[in-house]
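debug: dumping io for the single-chain case to check the tokenizer round-trip. Nothing else runs in this session.
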Amino acid sequence: MSEFLWKDRDRQAYAYPFNPRPECLDMIRRTPSMALDIGCGSGGVGQALGQRYPRCELWGCESDASAARMARAHFDRILEEDVQTADFGALGLARPFDLVCLFDVLEHLVNPWQLLDGLKRIVTKDAQVLVSLPNASNLPMLYDALRGHWRYTHWGLLDFTHLRFFTDFDARKMFYQTGFRVLDHRWTFLGLGREIFARHEAESFPLVLTVGSLLLKVQSVAELARLCTDQNLYLLSPHHGELLDDAEREMASNGYPPTYAFGR
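debug: decoded output
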């Protein structure tokens, strides 16, 4: 091991935990019969799905060979190829998936929009799609940035392999633009945000929040939750272009509120 993360990353063996992700699977509303876990790791979610839904056919997709070997014990089929280019018919898929899991996957892709758009070719018309995404509007992370620090880590919000960063708003724009409606949204507090939220959630709003030397006016408990969240969790389903109201039409559009960052 060297002293530098950028030197060590490619040398490390697979080390992600065997995580069944119950906080995500608890969002499932209907019993699935065909499930696909993209980025299935060593199989924690596959094991949990098999225990919850023993009649469900389980497929996993994992690019890391060592993780895929471990995952085979918990899935009916494991693919070690790019799900965006895989020929599922040739691989033996006889019916579309009615459940897809994307747990901490989209932020690692150059074009996650393309993956979501392509999913529609292999899912049922009312498929359940579960997504977890790191929260780019996490206040402790942004406070570090305001102090001049953007420190990549082995895992977490600034995992060295993250390529894309999404706030809840940006994630919703991506989902609606690629053909998916948000049916449920939950969040998890994993770091310092948990302490901040617990300390202030019962106070009167608006309130002035102090984080280090930063003073921030927070308008509501919902805004406090957005700032303290580490991971946003979503249940999606295809909308087939049938948008229910102006809010959904706006999410599916290319429109965007005014922003201040340099660029176009």
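debug: round-trip ok. Residues 5-138+147-189+231-252 form a domain with the Rossmann fold fold (CATH 3.40.50.150).
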